[in-house]
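Hello,

Following up on my earlier ticket. Below are the four sequence lines again, exactly as submitted.
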Amino acid sequence: MANPVRVTVWNEFRHEQKDEKIGATYPNGIHGAIAEGLNAIDGIEATTATLDEPEHGLTEEVVAGTDVFVWWGHMAHGDVDDAIVDRVHKRILGGAGLIVLHSGHYSKIFRRLMGTTCSLKWREADERERLWVVAPGHPIVEGIGPYIELDQEEMYGEHFDIPEPDNLIFVSWFQGGEVFRSGAVYYRGAGKVFYFRPGHETYTTYFNEEIRKVIGNAARWAAPVSREMPVYGNSDPIEDLSWYDRKHAITEGFGPTT
Amino acid sequence: MANPVRVTVWNEFRHEQKDEKIGATYPNGIHGAIAEGLNAIDGIEATTATLDEPEHGLTEEVVAGTDVFVWWGHMAHGDVDDAIVDRVHKRILGGAGLIVLHSGHYSKIFRRLMGTTCSLKWREADERERLWVVAPGHPIVEGIGPYIELDQEEMYGEHFDIPEPDNLIFVSWFQGGEVFRSGAVYYRGAGKVFYFRPGHETYTTYFNEEIRKVIGNAARWAAPVSREMPVYGNSDPIEDLSWYDRKHAITEGFGPTT
Amino acid sequence: MANPVRVTVWNEFRHEQKDEKIGATYPNGIHGAIAEGLNAIDGIEATTATLDEPEHGLTEEVVAGTDVFVWWGHMAHGDVDDAIVDRVHKRILGGAGLIVLHSGHYSKIFRRLMGTTCSLKWREADERERLWVVAPGHPIVEGIGPYIELDQEEMYGEHFDIPEPDNLIFVSWFQGGEVFRSGAVYYRGAGKVFYFRPGHETYTTYFNEEIRKVIGNAARWAAPVSREMPVYGNSDPIEDLSWYDRKHAITEGFGPTT
Amino acid sequence: MANPVRVTVWNEFRHEQKDEKIGATYPNGIHGAIAEGLNAIDGIEATTATLDEPEHGLTEEVVAGTDVFVWWGHMAHGDVDDAIVDRVHKRILGGAGLIVLHSGHYSKIFRRLMGTTCSLKWREADERERLWVVAPGHPIVEGIGPYIELDQEEMYGEHFDIPEPDNLIFVSWFQGGEVFRSGAVYYRGAGKVFYFRPGHETYTTYFNEEIRKVIGNAARWAAPVSREMPVYGNSDPIEDLSWYDRKHAITEGFGPTT
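Thanks for your patience. The regenerated structure is below:
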């Protein structure tokens, strides 16, 4: 508890550089805005990494030193090296957290963790979105009211091809007639995954205080649990199982071991 | 499989008798409309029962002979005798199905099975409802497209105070800005429960062919499984457990321990 | 986070007074042993309440000031006043946590929250129990290895008639041939519930350091989330919904529909 | 319902050919034994496919004509062509069922659908296994008693690195001290997945009548649901949404918003 949660905010960082308007919306990049929000929270230390850095900024050292990854990507999912995805995947199954944002639904890491296509409906029409809380006691909604309202967002609609969440946290309403499971929680391996829908690159969503609060809550929720991790593979009889040994001895070879 | 699913459609049957307009909408009662829809489906045999019949129409014989209950109630939940609720509860935990419709969310039987308040938001404003399918492979949506649209319905909104569903089947969009988990599946005891939102008494919802299809699919899904049910209580060592007996004999101890 | 989690450990406290041997095992009562374990943990403040105190020690003040209840009962479930159960039930749905231990599976509060019989198989035979962790990343197992082993415990066996857990944390192995879902997590209302199996009154289980660690982890996990809680009932159009008002004005109809 | 469920039983079919004893246990291969069991059930038509056939016996035609796949593999998971795995994966997400047996937990198709390592503990020691039913109302346990007992099986133990099942059906007890979530159900895309543990190649498990019953029940449960499947991608406003068009016309704005 004394140790801060070390978050690495990963961003593709292409839209901001290619499109002037998006660049003006996020002058420090989407990653910069998200990290700024996280660093304003006690007990969280956020750094950033982007696609065009060496190893996408996700070196062995960075990955090993990350408690929770935040992932934003959109137009360049295919440019992410499979070997780096392997590395992050392994770290998550080993206990780290992952917060997948918006168009990150199509990232390699999220699709791999879900096992489904992660497809959805979408429309860019500056629609109003209302994210209704459906899990009122979950730590991810601490400090959040009955819903979060965003004046303008891209629409994402069902069917969203994801596994049934372990807990469903938010359901979004969109002005044009669609709904979306916009906050979904998964346990995978010893790690935790939170998908959170908002954050199209053309809107100021990641400066929104409630959105920042949710991402911060999720980072704390997704932090690794400190414990001896499971051992897999061929399993010897457990040494101190006295009744077991006794039984073995008496029966001369019968029983679970031989 | 050869045996038909025996459905008992239970209805409070008060609105239809007290309000002329509702009576005209459902001349044979809400139960009559639902049973008509069910009886048009191969392999289903539906009968009806109503609040003001002796024992609410749910005698021991009726309950014992019911595979799946459909439940519609609204203004008179409090008039339902606790002893009858006990009887239905026991039958459901013993393997029968329960389909709770619309304002039945506040019925004694549903609240008892859920353990929560089952509260929600509501508004009567002739709003458009769109029930989006979020579980595309579930048998309850057989024959149903991406969504069901109802021109006019009462709004029910989140937060809906229910346990996290075992599977979430539908999420509703409402014109006025709300969403609702409108189709939710639960296993309880050896029985199955499906909550399905639509069906305010002032609309013709239960004549809608898609709504009827969903209720019919749910009746088949919720039918009891034929098997020897679990035995509870003090458990003797299982007789044919040879290694166990041998061990017992050798150690002269009590039971399984030595 | 700065505020401690206020735990009320409730115990029936009958076995310890009626049976000399059990009294010697738990000289300060089962509640005393559990509270002692909790109070040794930073950030937790535990007090106790027992059946034979006025209002079972669960006055309005105590209940309102409790973040997490721990519940142990066995021979006197029927003596618990329904009005007190109502009070605790309401507080849990409003956000408090509940940790139900061992024979508390048959308590009124747990059965009411589950909606099922909560029946199970059992046998008193001083059997070895091994609680295997099946959710390696859940905060409840922080600091716990692959399994917890108890040399002697009462056997509880499947089928355990509970709803499918939101997350299953432990599965127990028993020497005599049974298994049991021995750690199970539920969200209910705005509250959280953890059922944890071990702790028969004749064993020293609640002095076991690992068992104490699990109960402490669970208390932290189950603590209320600080937020504005949902409002239920008739819902007016939300005031700042400008598009909605505009539409309303144009169509001269009521509310959201035209 | 009139149409039979078309099952393709896929088997690696290497152990039976390389090891004389295993070949004698399964003279028609593991696939032959499983298909024989399935073909004895009304409404199921099973055929087989094996690794060393062209395209592993899973041509486009076979895959398109399969409602439910059964998958057994062990020593040659790596020899399965990724392109064939793609084909089967796509078919499952599109609605087909998949029953993964025993060491198939490490198959490419199962790991891809789960997104986790699917690792576990194991031991070959001719141990007794007891599969306890924990979901008494699920159609997969139709006709099955409180548990299935197998005199000798390979041990598989927790932690089993899979996602939390949508429904947990069986939990196994093993003589040597381990437990295992041995029957687990998942919805993925429009398809359904059932993992079922028993069936080590050295035992006669697939001739066991109860094991055959479970596999048959699972085949019926996993059969595709007949319906129009979801459409993904860029979504136009829905044509018959009259209020939507009206609003659009009035505001002269783009799309759904004003």
